[in-house]
Amino acid sequence: MTIAETLRAEGRVEGRVEGRVEGRAEGRVEGRVEGRVEGRAEGRVETLLQLLTLKFGPVPEPVLAAVRDASADQLQVWTARVLTADSFGQLLD
Prior knowledge:
Mean pLDDT: 83
Low-confidence stretches: none
Order of helices and strands: HHHHH
């Protein structure tokens, strides 16, 4: 009996193959989830920047940086606040 035959008989080869297949599948799912999360965050940033530009005109670099570095929760707050803010300062406070 060859080494490969012995490994197959003991179930080692199938287990390794199954483990690799499962690992790849999990990796793809995790990658898709991360991609969706990142896409949503980028969409929120772009939406907020568009609203700011429409309301106040050109967005200063410090505000751009703050928006791009903001958490998802902060972006949500600022996107709602843009409706009532009279300035960039009011928005970011």
